[in-house]
Protein backbone atom coordinates (compact mmCIF):
# COMPACT_ATOMS: atom_id res chain seq x y z
CA UNK A 1 0.00 0.00 0.00
CA UNK A 2 1.23 3.47 -0.83
CA UNK A 3 2.24 5.79 1.99
CA UNK A 4 3.00 9.48 2.20
CA UNK A 5 6.78 9.78 2.20
CA UNK A 6 7.26 13.53 2.25
CA UNK A 7 5.86 16.91 1.25
CA UNK A 8 8.10 19.30 -0.69
CA UNK A 9 7.97 22.99 0.17
CA UNK A 10 9.68 25.39 -2.23
CA UNK A 11 11.81 27.89 -0.30
CA UNK A 12 14.40 30.46 -1.30
CA UNK A 13 15.91 30.04 2.17
CA UNK A 14 14.97 26.55 3.43
CA UNK A 15 16.30 26.99 6.96
CA UNK A 16 14.52 30.31 7.46
CA UNK A 17 11.23 28.94 6.12
CA UNK A 18 11.52 25.77 8.21
CA UNK A 19 12.27 27.63 11.42
CA UNK A 20 9.31 29.97 10.88
CA UNK A 21 7.02 26.97 10.40
CA UNK A 22 8.54 25.24 13.42
CA UNK A 23 7.96 28.25 15.66
CA UNK A 24 4.32 28.52 14.59
CA UNK A 25 3.57 24.82 14.95
CA UNK A 26 5.83 23.93 17.89
CA UNK A 27 7.87 21.29 16.08
CA UNK A 28 11.55 20.47 15.64
CA UNK A 29 13.39 20.79 12.33
CA UNK A 30 16.91 19.82 11.33
CA UNK A 31 19.40 20.49 8.56
CA UNK A 32 19.16 17.94 5.76
CA UNK A 33 22.00 18.20 3.29
CA UNK A 34 22.96 18.97 -0.29
CA UNK A 35 22.01 17.22 -3.50
CA UNK A 36 25.30 17.97 -5.22
CA UNK A 37 24.16 16.73 -8.63
CA UNK A 38 21.06 18.93 -8.68
CA UNK A 39 22.36 22.06 -6.95
CA UNK A 40 19.72 21.89 -4.22
CA UNK A 41 19.69 21.60 -0.43
CA UNK A 42 17.07 21.08 2.24
CA UNK A 43 15.84 21.43 5.79
CA UNK A 44 13.58 18.74 7.28
CA UNK A 45 10.90 18.02 9.87
CA UNK A 46 10.07 14.39 10.73
CA UNK A 47 6.71 13.20 12.05
CA UNK A 48 5.45 10.27 14.10
CA UNK A 49 3.51 8.68 11.23
CA UNK A 50 6.69 7.93 9.27
CA UNK A 51 6.77 10.90 6.90
CA UNK A 52 8.41 14.32 6.76
CA UNK A 53 8.36 17.83 5.33
CA UNK A 54 11.23 18.93 3.11
CA UNK A 55 11.94 22.63 2.59
CA UNK A 56 13.86 22.60 -0.67
CA UNK A 57 16.00 25.39 -2.09
CA UNK A 58 18.74 26.00 -4.63
CA UNK A 59 22.40 26.62 -3.77
CA UNK A 60 23.75 26.37 -7.33
CA UNK A 61 21.43 27.76 -10.00
CA UNK A 62 23.59 26.49 -12.88
CA UNK A 63 23.45 22.88 -11.68
CA UNK A 64 19.73 23.14 -10.99
CA UNK A 65 19.08 24.51 -14.48
CA UNK A 66 21.01 21.62 -16.00
CA UNK A 67 19.07 18.97 -14.09
CA UNK A 68 16.53 16.84 -15.95
CA UNK A 69 14.87 15.82 -12.68
CA UNK A 70 11.19 16.88 -12.97
CA UNK A 71 11.06 17.87 -9.29
CA UNK A 72 14.00 20.24 -9.68
CA UNK A 73 12.39 21.72 -12.78
CA UNK A 74 9.17 22.22 -10.81
CA UNK A 75 11.12 23.86 -7.99
CA UNK A 76 12.87 26.26 -10.38
CA UNK A 77 9.55 27.27 -11.92
CA UNK A 78 7.98 27.89 -8.50
CA UNK A 79 10.87 29.98 -7.19
CA UNK A 80 11.17 31.95 -10.46
CA UNK A 81 7.51 32.88 -9.97
CA UNK A 82 8.06 33.68 -6.27
CA UNK A 83 5.70 30.84 -5.33
CA UNK A 84 7.13 29.64 -2.05
CA UNK A 85 5.15 26.96 -0.26
CA UNK A 86 4.04 23.34 -0.78
CA UNK A 87 4.47 22.31 -4.42
CA UNK A 88 4.61 18.51 -4.47
CA UNK A 89 4.50 15.32 -2.44
CA UNK A 90 6.04 11.87 -2.77
CA UNK A 91 4.34 8.51 -2.31
CA UNK A 92 6.48 5.72 -0.86
CA UNK A 93 6.43 2.28 -2.41
CA UNK A 94 8.35 -0.94 -1.87
CA UNK A 95 7.61 -2.23 -5.36
CA UNK A 96 8.45 0.40 -7.95
CA UNK A 97 8.80 -2.30 -10.62
CA UNK A 98 5.07 -2.98 -10.49
CA UNK A 99 4.30 0.68 -11.23
CA UNK A 100 6.72 0.70 -14.17
CA UNK A 101 4.90 -2.33 -15.59
CA UNK A 102 1.53 -0.65 -14.99
CA UNK A 103 2.60 2.60 -16.68
CA UNK A 104 4.02 0.65 -19.63
CA UNK A 105 0.81 -1.37 -20.02
CA UNK A 106 -1.35 1.76 -19.78
CA UNK A 107 1.01 3.63 -22.12
CA UNK A 108 1.44 6.32 -19.46
CA UNK A 109 4.60 8.35 -20.08
CA UNK A 110 7.02 8.56 -17.18
CA UNK A 111 10.54 9.61 -16.29
CA UNK A 112 12.77 7.33 -14.27
CA UNK A 113 13.60 5.52 -12.21
CA UNK A 114 15.87 8.45 -11.33
CA UNK A 115 18.61 7.84 -8.77
CA UNK A 116 18.91 10.21 -5.83
CA UNK A 117 21.76 10.65 -3.40
CA UNK A 118 22.92 12.99 -0.65
CA UNK A 119 25.20 12.88 2.35
CA UNK A 120 23.59 13.28 5.73
CA UNK A 121 25.22 15.70 8.21
CA UNK A 122 26.86 12.67 9.89
CA UNK A 123 28.55 11.76 6.60
CA UNK A 124 26.39 8.72 5.86
CA UNK A 125 25.10 8.20 2.33
CA UNK A 126 21.38 8.23 1.65
CA UNK A 127 20.15 6.72 -1.63
CA UNK A 128 16.76 6.38 -3.30
CA UNK A 129 14.95 6.09 -6.63
CA UNK A 130 12.14 8.25 -8.00
CA UNK A 131 9.56 7.57 -10.69
CA UNK A 132 7.66 10.49 -12.23
CA UNK A 133 4.39 9.83 -14.11
CA UNK A 134 4.00 12.49 -16.79
CA UNK A 135 0.36 13.32 -17.50
CA UNK A 136 -0.60 16.96 -18.01
CA UNK A 137 -0.47 17.98 -14.35
CA UNK A 138 2.12 17.54 -11.62
CA UNK A 139 1.12 14.25 -10.02
CA UNK A 140 3.03 13.00 -6.97
CA UNK A 141 6.14 11.02 -7.75
CA UNK A 142 6.91 7.57 -6.39
CA UNK A 143 9.93 6.99 -4.19
CA UNK A 144 11.67 3.83 -3.08
CA UNK A 145 14.50 4.04 -0.56
CA UNK A 146 17.75 2.19 -0.99
CA UNK A 147 20.07 1.34 1.88
CA UNK A 148 17.86 2.96 4.51
CA UNK A 149 14.89 5.29 4.84
CA UNK A 150 15.28 8.98 5.49
CA UNK A 151 14.92 9.09 9.27
CA UNK A 152 17.03 10.97 11.82
CA UNK A 153 19.69 9.07 13.76
CA UNK A 154 18.43 10.74 16.92
CA UNK A 155 14.85 9.53 17.36
CA UNK A 156 14.22 12.51 19.68
CA UNK A 157 14.13 14.61 16.50
CA UNK A 158 10.96 12.88 15.33
CA UNK A 159 8.04 15.11 16.24
CA UNK A 160 5.15 13.61 18.19
CA UNK A 161 2.66 15.15 15.75
CA UNK A 162 1.38 13.45 12.60
CA UNK A 163 0.71 14.79 9.13
CA UNK A 164 -2.98 13.95 9.23
CA UNK A 165 -4.30 15.22 5.91
CA UNK A 166 -3.19 16.39 2.48
CA UNK A 167 -5.51 18.42 0.26
CA UNK A 168 -4.79 18.42 -3.47
CA UNK A 169 -6.49 19.80 -6.58
CA UNK A 170 -5.46 16.83 -8.72
CA UNK A 171 -8.29 15.17 -10.71
CA UNK A 172 -9.64 12.14 -8.88
CA UNK A 173 -10.15 9.82 -11.85
CA UNK A 174 -6.66 10.36 -13.24
CA UNK A 175 -5.14 9.79 -9.82
CA UNK A 176 -7.11 6.55 -9.45
CA UNK A 177 -5.95 5.30 -12.85
CA UNK A 178 -2.30 6.17 -12.22
CA UNK A 179 -1.90 4.65 -8.79
CA UNK A 180 -4.49 1.83 -9.00
CA UNK A 181 -6.21 2.56 -5.70
CA UNK A 182 -9.85 2.85 -4.72
CA UNK A 183 -11.10 6.34 -3.90
CA UNK A 184 -14.34 6.95 -2.06
CA UNK A 185 -16.10 10.31 -1.67
CA UNK A 186 -13.01 12.24 -2.81
CA UNK A 187 -10.87 10.68 -0.08
CA UNK A 188 -7.99 8.26 -0.49
CA UNK A 189 -6.57 6.57 2.59
CA UNK A 190 -2.81 6.21 2.35
CA UNK A 191 -1.04 3.85 4.73
CA UNK A 192 -0.19 6.68 7.11
CA UNK A 193 -2.45 9.65 6.31
CA UNK A 194 -5.52 10.84 4.40
CA UNK A 195 -5.46 12.34 0.92
CA UNK A 196 -8.37 14.64 0.11
CA UNK A 197 -9.29 15.91 -3.34
CA UNK A 198 -10.45 19.53 -3.47
CA UNK A 199 -11.49 21.77 -6.34
CA UNK A 200 -10.39 25.24 -5.27
CA UNK A 201 -7.33 24.83 -3.05
CA UNK A 202 -3.62 24.71 -3.62
CA UNK A 203 -1.67 21.81 -2.19
CA UNK A 204 -2.16 22.01 1.59
CA UNK A 205 -1.55 19.79 4.60
CA UNK A 206 -2.50 19.55 8.27
CA UNK A 207 -0.58 18.33 11.31
CA UNK A 208 -1.84 17.37 14.74
CA UNK A 209 -1.05 15.07 17.66
TrEMBL record:
Transmembrane residue ranges: none
Any Pfam family the entry gives: Glyoxalase_3
InterPro entries: Glyas_Bleomycin-R_OHBP_Dase, Glyoxalase-like_dom
Location of the Glyoxalase-like domain: 4-157
PANTHER family membership: BLL2707 PROTEIN, GLYOXALASE-LIKE DOMAIN-CONTAINING PROTEIN
The name this protein goes by in its record: Glyoxalase-like domain-containing protein
Amino acid sequence: MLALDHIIVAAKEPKTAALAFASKNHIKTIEGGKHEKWGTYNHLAYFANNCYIEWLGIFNQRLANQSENPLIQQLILALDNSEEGPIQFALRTENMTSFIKHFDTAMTPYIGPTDGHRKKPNGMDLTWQMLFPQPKKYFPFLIQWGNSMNVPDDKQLINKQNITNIATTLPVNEFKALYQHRIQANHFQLANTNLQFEEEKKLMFSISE
